[in-house]
Design a protein that fits this description.
The complex is a heterodimer of chains A (278) and B (347).
Chain A (H helix, E strand, L loop, with lengths): L1 H11 L1 H23 L31 H37 L1 H15 L3 H12 L3 H28 L2 H8 L4 H37 L11 H10 L6 H28 L6
Helix pairs in contact in A: 1-2, 2-3, 2-10, 3-4, 3-6, 3-8, 4-6, 5-6, 6-8, 7-8, 8-9, 8-10, 9-10
Chain B lengths: L5 E13 L4 H6 L4 E13 L3 E5 L6 H9 L6 E6 L2 E5 L2 E2 L4 H5 L2 E4 L3 H4 L6 H11 L5 H14 L16 H13 L5 E5 L7 H18 L2 E5 L3 H7 L2 E6 L2 E7 H6 L4 H8 L51 E2 L5 E2 L2 H19 L1
Parallel strand pairs in B: 3-9, 3-10, 7-8, 8-9
Antiparallel strand pairs in B: 1-2, 1-4, 4-5, 5-6, 10-11, 11-13, 12-13
Helix pairs in contact in B: 5-6, 7-8
Classes of the chains: A mainly alpha (278), B alpha/beta (347).
């Protein structure tokens, strides 16, 4: 029955179908990238540096003659892996945080949300830079930094839904039946927040892709020679006029991935959250 | 008449809520309170159905919530048999889990009262599992028995609440309330959100369960026609105060409290005769529950009230014909009648 509903939603909503299709393609590329890539992404081809797109090198080659297409394909893994890690940490912490604040309410809620506001006032990139300054460059510090900055947003989403649900009478009924607060929060309130959590995760993923690429671009995230869209862009900057394809293709990859996830998230919200429908 | 078997006793119960204040009041330290329940004493007899009636804001639900243990009263006591359930500022006696097996509530809106992510079977099995009454396998049989009790087929357990109609949903809510075999059932306007065609079924069900399971029921409603169907006694609340407590038949027949009479006159009837004319409406303003007047709270709308009624609050007094009423006029009339009878017999 559930599968049927998903299939009919995909059929009736082309935007959902297309974005979901792109999302699936990106995930497949991320998982199987090294086997899909026509060449070794790190293989240096002396003499064929800065070649424009051609039959041999679909997206051209870079300064060292490495195949840009292969590097992009293999780089997808870093882009998605980092972003997924951000989402898992962010939404995981945010759900716990928001659920506690929303379920308890009152003064606890107020204090927890104000602390969240303080975290929220840090721009994401600054937080990333801060974590790199403390723990050194690399994907993990950058991911943790971003996840912490995004956390209050996820917490707010969960908190407001938890707040709404806690006012429903089934929560009061649970209390009167002698259920523990933990049971009510986890078994009753949390499942009713699930659709908001899923939507939030898809939105954060798009943000995380952009911010991770930006931090790699600054040389703080994934370190060369590991192929990554952000550090590919940073390299491309030096030869922008000589070899514009070096900047165009990674940029396009980021744009398409982010757009696909954004549309996917928006359509998902439409289908999962009945209040979104008019 | 034998002395009634008192099951739940509410003594001088008061429940106040702080008014949400603006910045100015907070700076000036002005504290205001809504008097939701303002010194109510009443008894629930074992096995009876006591109707709590009154307009919205009269404190019916607040009173019920105090008895259920959702709210902690500001003053007064609540007793269940010889166990004190609550006193001023604290819930006493049983733990929340023990309390759950004494008092349960049927909610007004069955849609909100059921978690829509759970199947009916899980909803009904949960009380058994939480209270470790039986294991998961035995719970299935118990759930079926519960469903049968409220007149639902066993397949209902497989459904989600949104797949049921409102009447079926309310039956599920009732079944859940019965799972722990409580002694007291509070029904908070259980049919207000149902279609008229379904209201009767639920009323009959509650009445039937009360008889079969020997439950003591508090039935909150603002609909007097419902009262006549189901209640054995009626308690009338106004502005958080008890105005009248009466046997159902007497309530609909006798010269009750002026407020009760006004309520009866303003109730739409199914059969309208020519002399009925237009329905009466209660004229005048309800006083603010924040600033309760010192005298009779109903004075501002009472057709019979005078200056004396505004000085002190009329006490709840036993009537010569039975029942209790908080009205100077009725008390005086009763007194005159008994005096008249007394002098008449002597002369």
């Amino acid at each position: 029955m559930r599968t049927a509903a998903v299939l009919s939603a995909l059929r009736r909503d082309p935007a959902l179908a297309i974005s979901a299709g792109l999302v699936v393609i990106f995930v497949i590329i991320a998982v199987f990238g090294p086997w899909i890539a026509p060449q070794d992404p790190n293989q240096i081809n002396p003499g064929s540096n800065y070649l424009p797109p051609s039959g041999d090198f679909w997206f051209g080659t870079d300064r060292s003659g490495r195949d840009l297409f292969s590097r992009l394909i293999v780089g997808t893994r870093m882009a998605l892996l980092g972003a997924f890690a951000v989402v898992v940490i962010d939404v995981g912490l945010g759900t716990v945080y928001g659920l506690i604040a929303g379920y308890i309410g009152g003064r606890v809620d107020n204090i927890m949300m104000r602390i969240g506001d303080i975290l929220l006032s840090f721009p994401a990139l600054i937080m990333g830079v801060l974590f790199v300054a403390i723990f050194g460059p690399g994907l993990i510090p950058v991911v943790v930094g971003l996840a912490l900055v995004y956390m209050p947003t996820a917490a707010r989403v969960v908190r407001s839904q938890a707040r709404i649900q806690t006012k429903e009478q089934y929560v009061e009924a649970g209390r009167l039946l002698g259920y523990s607060p933990l049971r009510i929060a986890l078994r009753h309130v949390l499942p009713n927040c699930l659709s908001q959590i899923i939507v939030q995760a898809s939105i954060v993923l798009a943000y995380a892709v952009v911010d991770l690429a930006a931090l790699s671009f600054l040389g703080l995230g994934v370190q060369p020679p590991t192929p990554d869209w952000g550090n590919m862009l940073a390299e491309a900057q030096k030869s922008m006029l000589l070899a514009p394809w070096l900047a165009i293709f990674p940029a396009l990859a980021i744009i398409i991935l982010v757009l696909a996830w954004n549309v996917f998230g928006a359509r998902l919200r439409y289908h999962l959250d009945p209040t979104e429908r008019r | 008449m034998s002395a009634p078997d008192i099951h739940v006793s509410v003594k001088e119960l008061r429940m106040l809520f702080p008014v949400k204040r603006g910045l100015r009041d907070r700076v000036l330290g002005v504290k205001q309170w809504v008097h939701a329940v303002d010194g109510v004493s009443l008894d629930l007899h074992r096995g009876e159905c006591l109707a709590l009636v009154g307009e919205s804001g009269s404190g019916k639900t607040t009173l019920a919530n105090c008895i259920a243990g959702s709210l902690v009263p500001v003053a007064g006591e609540i007793w269940l048999d010889d166990v004190m359930l609550a006193r001023a500022g604290a819930l006493t006696g049983p733990s929340a889990r023990e309390r759950a097996r004494l008092v349960q509530v049927i909610f007004q809106d069955p849609t909100s009262a059921l978690n829509r992510r759970l199947r009916v079977g899980s909803v009904l099995a949960e009380p058994f599992l939480v209270h470790k009454i039986c294991n998961r396998a035995e719970a299935t049989a118990r759930v079926e028995a519960l469903l049968a009790r409220v007149g639902l087929p066993p397949e209902t357990a497989e459904h989600y609440s949104h797949e049921l109609n409102a009447s079926q949903r309310q039956r599920v809510v009732i079944a859940r309330a019965l799972a722990l075999e409580p002694r007291v059932l509070i029904a908070d306007e259980p049919i207000a959100k149902l279609d008229v065609s379904m209201q009767g079924q639920i009323l009959n069900l509650i009445d039937q369960l009360r008889r079969e399971l020997d439950l003591s029921v508090i039935f909150i409603t603002h609909d007097l026609s419902v009262v006549r169907q189901i209640a054995t006694r009626v308690a009338v609340l106004y502005l958080g105060q008890l105005m009248e407590l009466q046997e159902t038949e007497a309530f609909f027949g006798s010269e009750g409290h002026p407020y009760s009479q006004a309520l009866l006159r303003s109730t739409p009837r199914l059969r309208v005769t020519a002399e009925d004319g237009e329905l009466h409406t209660i004229k005048g303003e309800i006083p603010s529950p924040i600033d309760v007047p010192p005298g009779c709270p109903f004075l501002s709308r009472c057709p019979e009230g005078d200056d004396d009624c505004g000085r002190t609050r009329p006490p709840l007094q036993a009537r010569s014909a039975g029942g209790l009423v908080a009205c100077f006029k009725r008390a005086a009339a009763d007194l005159a009648a008994t005096d008249g009878a007394a002098t008449g017999s002597h002369g």
